[in-house]
Each structure stands twice: as structure tokens, then as C-alpha cells.
Amino acid sequence: MAPQSPEKTDQNTIYQPLTPEEVGSDQAAAHSELPQAENANINLGDRIDESKSLLEKAQQVAVDVADITGEQVVVPTYFVTNEPDGEHRALHHVRDAEAISDVIRQARVDEEGNRHWW
């Protein structure tokens, strides 16, 4: 997956929000006003919109709510992976769960503790 720290980004890195402070105000407001008339079994951010760009998908948040302990939990809708050929791929956290697991299994750590995703 893409690194999370905006300070460590370069041209080939896509930043994704993982804390409540990093979630855009428009998404935060939408999550706090979940439509009750719609399917209550789907999170607002779970909706798949293939017309979105890779960067838009990287910013989409599926969950931005407090858990049972009151701690705010943020889950990105898409996990952006860096492929060995340098390409990026947005994997939906539900639809592509098996592919996300495959990416995690491919992770390697070198002698210096640096993680390599292929």
C-alpha cells in the first residue's frame, strides 16, 4: 500500500487519509449525515464509482465513525497498491479483499527493516 506520511511522498506516491484529521470536510460531513432511508447495510464510502480517478479513489473514505470505545476509526474505501512495474492500482476494501490479502502476503522486509511490496 502507499505510504501514509505526506512528508515522505514523492511523485509516484499517492497519499490516503487514515486519521479523522486527514478526512476531507466534505466526506466527514457526509458520513455524519448518513441517509437513513437508504440501505443501512452499506457504508456511505463503500459505493463503487468506476468513473472516479485513481487520486479520487485514494481519498474516498468508507468509514469515519467512533468505535465502541469512542475512538474515531477511519477506513479508506480503496487501498492503493504500487505494482512492481511502477503502476498504481486501487483495490476496493470489500470487493477486492482477496487481492488486498495477496498484496499483503507479498510484502517483504529487507535487512534494514524497509518494506518492499513485491
Keywords, separated by commas or semicolons:
3 helices, two-stranded antiparallel sheet, alpha+beta, 118 residues, single chain, two-stranded antiparallel ribbon
Structure characterization notes:
- It is built from three helices and six strands; from the N terminus they run H-H-E-E-E-E-H-E-E.
- The protein has a two-stranded antiparallel ribbon with strand order 1-2. Strands 3-4 form a two-stranded antiparallel ribbon. It has a two-stranded antiparallel sheet with strand order 5-6.
- It has one domain.
- A hairpin with a 5-residue loop joins strand 5 and strand 6 (115-116).
- The radius of gyration is 15 Å and the shape is globular.
- With 118 residues, the chain is an alpha+beta fold.
